[in-house]
Amino acid sequence: MEDDPKLVKRCLAGENSAWEILLKEHTRKIFNLCYRFTGRPTEAEDLTQEVFIKIFQTLQTFDAAQGSFATWLNRVARNHLVDHYRRTRKDRLTSSLDDETGVMEETPSPAAGPGIQVESRERRELLQRGLDRLSPDLREAVILRDLSDLDYDEIAQVLAVPQGTVKSRINRGRLELARVLKRMEGMKGPAKAGGAT
Amino acid sequence: MTHLELENLASEYLEGQLDAVCRVEVEAHLKECAPCRELIADVRHALELCQSAEELEPAPWLISKIMLGTVGERKPTFFEQLAAFFRPQARMRLAYGIAMTVFSLSIIANAAGINLRHLTLQDLSPRTWVYQANRTGHLMVARAEKFYYDLRVVYEIESRLRQFRQGSGQGTGREERQTPKTDSPGNGTTDSKPPEIPVLARVQGLIDAPADFSATMLFGAGTTRSSFR
To answer: Is CATH 1.10.10.10 the classification given to domain A113-192?
Structure first.
């Protein structure tokens, strides 16, 4: 399989097929990153599209010597997501119900049984709600580390902060997420128990 | 080790990135401190939740949508165009087109009297085509006419008509009866002119003909069926 810098060169030479290969390779990751940030599949799709349009327009600025294409792509996506977060802050404060139900729109994997699907969806929703409660700095650090599987060095490049800061943010983010999840599960547990009796 | 120090090392401890000394210190603190044990368990649970979270599949049209938003309508390559051209449907269309062209050309060549096996330079001249087409046309008309007169059913109809006329107008055609018969239609060649006198009139003149009457009536005056062919 051809590596990303070569594909980028072919893209710059006007080969649309190379661009299509890059898209097929990275769309899923960027979509998931966007989804983890927004919690809504439709919004994540729009953001993914916007990110790739931005990437396409600035493809000539990519320098393979400064890092991998995936890292550069994540950095552009992260910056775009932060911009989007700032832009839509007011809207988010006013909307509440949509945020909660947006996650339900996704299609469950047909291979899994109904019970597993429900359980998987519940866990995903729980995690998403937990991530939504984190501050953007901590959230992006946790997402990049624990959901996008980037290493500390890559995250430092994406976030343009020192590695020590990355480690600190990831640690604080995880602690905060653990507390939030515990609180949410604690609220869910008695409610379920109450509902059962 | 304090609670705060442990909190700061929680991620590294869970990822196994602490050196041996630090690790021992953390584990020693955890043995004594229940809240910190609980905290580490919660963080581990959060990490497990993150790791078990499945990646979502984007909508299948997303890539096409992005392609459209970036490079626009994708232009197919030369090979893709070629492949598209030879797709089964296109193949059928092509075969049909070729067949129709060959068929049309063969009709034109046939009408122009061009022998494709022995093609000469003269055959390529439009004048020859016009001449040959004209000749072939006339030959076809003459043959069709001869064929028509050669048909038994035509003869039968004309014979009945003749009898009917005879029955209705006896005595009026005495002179006509004595009129010698004219050229037979075709006169045995395909280049001959069609008969000037209508067949019915000639048939009427042959009503009192002698012994060869039947043959004459059947195959036309002065000719036989075989002579038309």
So the answer is: yes
